[in-house]
Automatic annotation (TrEMBL), chains A, B:
Native source organism of the sequence: Psychrilyobacter piezotolerans
Origin organism lineage: Bacteria, Fusobacteriati, Fusobacteriota, Fusobacteriia, Fusobacteriales
InterPro entries documented for this protein: Methyltranfer_dom, SAM-dependent_MTases_sf
Domain of life: Bacteria
GO molecular-function terms, A-Z: methyltransferase activity
Transmembrane segments annotated in the record for this chain: none
Pfam families registered for this protein in UniProt: Methyltransf_31
GO biological process entries: methylation
Occurrences of domain Methyltransferase (ranges): 44-151
Protein's name according to its UniProt entry: Methyltransferase domain-containing protein
Keywords noted in UniProt: Methyltransferase, Transferase
């Protein structure tokens, strides 16, 4: 774990994660993906880099939307095997690579995209600096991460429930303590890095970006019909999504 | 209450608030003021507008730091009486005025400053638009407000405590529900407006500003020596402070 954490190649984690992603309705499909996609620019003729591309679904989407070249990188060989099987295209290149090592990529991109991967990265500043370097003039950086109110969590119960099991409030602790968090998600010892909201905004700024839009997506009425417990997301959002332009 | 809420002219509120502000050590003096002052530019020869100037302490400070003209506005006649008595200066002008009505001010400012007042304002977008209009080229807007995690609160207990009375977590609810909050602070029915982090950042952006720095101040080691319970602020910050330049 740590710098080059590759939990997605753990057999138990891989299968557990696959189970969630294969559900017809899940948080990614209903909340995170529509929100991050709403921030995408016109992709016709664009060069796109997808950091932590996983199964390559977004890479295929970029091609559909007219991108002329997509590079998807992921540290997990098992994820990339699925990507190459299910989302192969002559203009998509998949690379087995840690986000810590993108400083040796060559070429420039118009869009660098990352969905729910950056909270695994310890050195946020180095990564954003590398991303800025890889972007062409007028390039965009659009990414999602677990919301800081979610990553703040260390241990203990996350929620306080009433007698019916309904979540009545989120148990927020240690929000101002940035740093490593070890959580259990399918397996023990999954390492994430908590950063406060101000730390995120200031780092994006300092690394040469101008923030254009910040989203904390909410469930829609339709989502709540599909997954009624999503009404509880009004207490605490799950995702933070940022669109930033290269200054 | 509401649009032109003037709770500070309520006798009970005024005396209660005065009691807090007169304490040698309080959250304003130890956390909010050092943090917001750390964001100030060189003030020599500058024109400053202070929104919700209260006792006028910051107006005096700006003059000390070389400002050539300071306008302090406040909706509370009682607060301004104190300001005129304790922080009078030939280059400070105090105006009894709601922040809703700054669109009829004339002249331009190099700095518009506001300490812990904007969470009382319902129409954030109009206010920021007016502030942008009143700023000269290269003008700065620097303000503090109650942190969104604080304003989210509606009713019930804010904190869960252990047997010794120590705060173990903040009871976060309704964070994603923007809007009016009625709280009890010396008197019942004090009206504040909760806005999410993304709503704040996006509104500042949309109103023609570029965010330069965001602070969520923490107590220092010295603060914790003076007020030991401040160690609990690591669970949830009290203030949000933003420095933004006119685009």
């Amino acid at each position: 774990m740590g710098k080059n954490q590759n939990v997605y190649d753990n057999e138990i984690f891989f299968e557990g994660y696959k189970g969630i992603r294969e559900q017809e309705n899940n948080y990614n499909k209903l909340q995170e993906q529509p929100a991050i996609k709403s921030l995408l620019p016109d992709l016709k003729g664009k060069r796109v880099l997808d950091l932590g591309c996983g199964y390559g679904e977004s890479c295929s989407y970029f091609i559909e939307k007219g991108a002329k070249k997509v590079v998807g990188i992921d540290i997990s060989r098992k994820m990339l095997e699925v990507a190459r099987e299910e989302n192969s295209h002559e203009n998509i290149e998949y690379l087995e690579k840690s986000m810590d090592d993108i400083d040796n990529l060559t070429g420039k991109f118009d869009l660098i995209y990352s969905s729910l991967a950056l909270h695994y990265m310890e050195d946020f500043k180095k990564l954003l600096t590398d991303i800025n370097t890889l972007l062409d003039t007028d390039g965009l950086f659009i990414y999602s991460q677990e919301h800081p109110l979610t990553t703040a969590h260390e241990k203990g119960q996350r929620w306080t429930r009433d007698e019916s099991g309904m979540r009545i409030h989120y148990n927020l602790a240690n929000y101002m303590k940035s740093g490593k968090r070890e959580v259990t998600w399918f397996i023990d010892g999954v390492v994430k890095y908590h950063r406060t909201f101000s730390e995120i905004i200031n780092t994006v700024n300092e690394c040469g970006f101008q923030i254009e839009k910040v989203l904390e997506p909410l469930p829609s009425k339709e989502d709540i019909k599909l997954i009624p417990k999503m009404v509880q997301d009004f207490h605490k959002p799950n995702f933070l999504i940022i669109r930033a332009g290269r200054r």
